[in-house]
């Protein structure tokens, strides 16, 4: 495929497309893989192609067995499609993301974009089939409308709304390969043997698993290639086809490069996939926690002990000190343990909550905050301490509105060092449980270790 | 395939195997589908074939990305394979279950059988490939060893250790179809398009999704058919083959009947599948709860109110009264709410725990028990009540050893009816959360509504 082909009215920066330049381009792009240079390259790099993405999201989700189309099913109260948009958005060199949704879901989709502050998104109306939805997305990119902010890209990524775990590296691989080959797509080994039935419902033959692959997403194409393929393809293709790579092959004679993808690329298809997605997301946002404490000398000992215990007990979790809260928030830590050694009030916890509130951190994920207090039996009796701390229920109800899940933890603080260690270990287990489960049914509870 | 074929030394009850009898047999078996007659038929029915199952479980689970082979990965602390054995065991007409495990896992497997009280299981040594493991299982069924309790079945089911959600109806369908056709297997629609790569890693062609299916498990065979196929097949087949149906076709010219299976048949392959399996199991055992309370008049009002609230708030959950505990346990209810209106002790809860302990209910799944108490502020102040109830920590630690997860719930009991309803609603939410999460990190906690 060369520039100037019929159907290609010329992207703003056509750039070199010949196979001979592929190696140089690949090298330039490979440096992006390091991640650190991504931004500079995307903003200033002259040889990076203009890339857009099309996301068909018009499906009805009938396989899920639930009335809501699967791309709108909530995970931690946020629709699945928002996670996929987030995954594409954070790749800065994707300039535009065109989402095709049905007319009936258009307003809901606008609400999602606004609520979760998605950027660079344009909406088009979905067609009755996946191929027609993709075609509508491509048309929006091809034809410069008077009021459209879209421009014709050199390379277009096609992805699914229901594959939320796509990583930058595979996107980069398919884009780079598409630039060289005209088309590229992610593949995976087959999990089951594929068979061909005869007309009477019996086995005709089975396929050699080593010679076949599952075609997954993302895929990428030179825009002119895939747009021409869609313009030329038959109504039968648009109605019953399932494979964009096949269209590029059939109508533009472009043999797509196949790129081995990771297991993360799987498609949320059944209800069990929603369960899996929720567990994966919960696990990802539970990988680090921040311990906030004062540096007063009398408080520091037990606070440090708890921090050490958390590091020992949760050795898969990165435990950070909250000295520089802004930095912690920038690192997208969604779990906070606020240590109050001497007090039964929530002054310090309230300060933390205020900082979190200003940061907008909880827009995308529920943030867990655990207000830790200690009971040494010397100053205040247990019952009294409990009564003081029960104010947490009101506070928790208030911050829940902002997607912050607040719990209290009262740790018994005996003089005996060994018993203290045991209390702290129990406390660490409870903290780990609250962070892992992230269930709003337990907000405002005062747990006891 | 007729009886008396080479390799068939004749099952105990050969029974009619000719195609012409298939319809009558199918009708007889179809009646089993109703479920109620299954037991009578299996015990007394003369036309039901002798059925055994072979479960290859020698895999290394490399795709899972964890060191433990996937069939031994724990779900709610119980190995995955135990769930699959449980699914096969409860089908009473499966007489023997032969499991092929590697020598290194033999002792672990014996431990699993003993701990979870599995019945009708025989162990054989796995081969280095799946086909060799299955062959070893078939050999054990074919050759009557002096000390073996196994006998040659008429029909053999082949299933996977990592497909724990297989239901009786699909097992019955494949067995019935195997009896008629010689071989049968469950299939599912393809989730992804299947493609064939060329040698340079590019797309050669894509397959029409409507003309292909994924071959899943269970499969079933006339024993003589599949045993002969394995005896005749090449070393190449045994090393690299993946499809038993293909062996029956290639070596015995038996065209397997394909049976549409449910999505539940999916294979636990990746880590995300373990997450999905855990969520499905948790959901299944959270579908009913039992409320245990005294019938004394002064206690009954608030107890009934809570029961009603649970029914309203958790309308997907069956809420039963615990008048006849033995019956409730027989119905495999794994969630108990013990209502103590006037007392701050655990006498009644302890009685319930004793009954559960004697029932062995918690061998297979962790049982959740929530001891509910009320605070009316008239009799005992909050702090004092709390102190009394904190004994629950010791009790919870004790019963955890028997896989019972005990928590306390203190519900505020105001005079105002509207406020009481609000307290009870909060209590119902907390109960639902504890049952849903089933996390041992919260045992012994006293939650407050």
TrEMBL record, chains A, B:
Keyword Nucleotidyltransferase: yes
GO biological process: isoprenoid biosynthetic process; protein O-linked glycosylation via mannose
Entry-linked CDD domains: CDP-ME_synthetase (cd02516)
Pathway: Protein modification; protein glycosylation
InterPro entries registered for this protein in UniProt: IspD/TarI (IPR034683), ISPD_C (IPR040635), ISPD_synthase_CS (IPR018294), Nucleotide-diphossugar_trans (IPR029044)
The enzyme's E.C. designation: 2.7.7.40
Pfam family, one: ISPD_C
GO cellular component, one term: cytosol
Catalyzed chemical reaction(s): D-ribulose 5-phosphate + CTP + H(+) = CDP-D-ribulose + diphosphate; D-ribitol 5-phosphate + CTP + H(+) = CDP-L-ribitol + diphosphate; D-ribose 5-phosphate + CTP + H(+) = CDP-D-ribose + diphosphate
Subcellular location: Cytoplasm, Cytosol
Subunit annotation: Homodimer.
UniProt similarity note: Belongs to the IspD/TarI cytidylyltransferase family. IspD subfamily.
Name of the featured protein: D-ribitol-5-phosphate cytidylyltransferase
Species name: Camelus ferus
